[in-house]
Amino acid sequence: xxxxxxxxxxxxxxxxxxxxxxxxxxxxxxxxxxxxxxxxxxxxxxxxxxxxxxxxxxxxxxxxxxxxxxxxxxxxxxxxxxxxxxxxxxxxxxxxxxxxxxxxxxxxxxxxxxxxxxxxxxxxxxxxxxxxxxxxxxxxxxxxxxxxxxxxxxxxxxxxxxxxxxxxxxxxxxxxxxxxxxxxxxxxxxxxxxxxxxxxxxxxxxxxxxxxxxxxxxxxxxxxxxxxxxxxxxxxxxxxxxxxxxxxxxxxxxxxxxxxxxxxxxxxxxxxxxxxxxxxxxxxxxxxxxxxxxxxxxxxxxxxxxxxxxxxxxxxxxxxxxxxxxxxxxxxxxxxxxxx
Length: 340
Description:
- The protein is of the alpha+beta class and 340 residues long.
- It has 2 domains: 9-169 and 298-335, Triger factor/SurA peptide-binding fold (Orthogonal Bundle), CATH 1.10.4030; 179-282, Chitinase A, domain 3 (Roll), CATH 3.10.50.40.
- Helix content is 44%, strand content 15%.
- The protein is built from 10 helices and 11 strands.
- It has a 4-stranded antiparallel β-sheet, sandwiched between helices. A 3-stranded antiparallel β-sheet has the order 3-2-10. Strands 1-11 form a two-stranded antiparallel ribbon.
- Helix 1 crosses helix 2 (83-103), helix 2 packs across helix 5 (143-166) and helix 3 crosses helix 5 (143-166).
């Protein structure tokens, strides 16, 4: 969840109500939540509060049923922070990056057309019309703030993409070379009996699995497929030399030793089971093309982040902690009509 820092504009379609309404009189909307460029500019507490409360509402309507009423006070990431603190930190990071992207928009020829500005104005009006009066007040939503959020989202997204397209990825076809093998897996970790109870396998049952796996080491038998002996069959692609976080290293090591068409001996992976694999392709063109695209996209993302990091170093961004602390997620939001 935490990776989704920027809120999608499409989420404005959600209609909200509040649980126990308590108003938002605790904040001074005109106070500075952030002082930018040594006082040359500010981000108002009113706007920062709205973005934070809107983010709160999106999380609650999306994850509230699974995370529970105490979601904001829990340490969901195991980092010693409450979920509220983590999300507020993400909101502030997103505000900083959006601010910088918007203020560099002219460098990349990005601007909104009059039609787009009109569409944003209409969308903001509709958002206010779709939500209850109490929810709007609890969020601190105004026509100005909603338009600003949509404007920043739109422009920052376009500038981000313009920056990414300026990157010159260095990933090569060799960097993306993928080998593909078919594997059949025989589980020895547990077994479900006729009563639906799960238990550990006995040594005898594990040996039976090994014997079934051994049958597939004959290429003729392997080609018959897993259904003939009860294993689980699938394919897997990997890049030689990479540390693989998904497939067991014993299996990757065995794959490295195979030529195309060869079938491996039985591979035992402790606490998992037995594998038998067949190398299908020493150079899988389709998988390699997908890997190359993925590597290039990662490098474009890295270039964007490097650009943003440079701007952050050049532009002071001082959060007014005492004001920002007044923004809390104490009052829950619900989807309008959910409690009717």
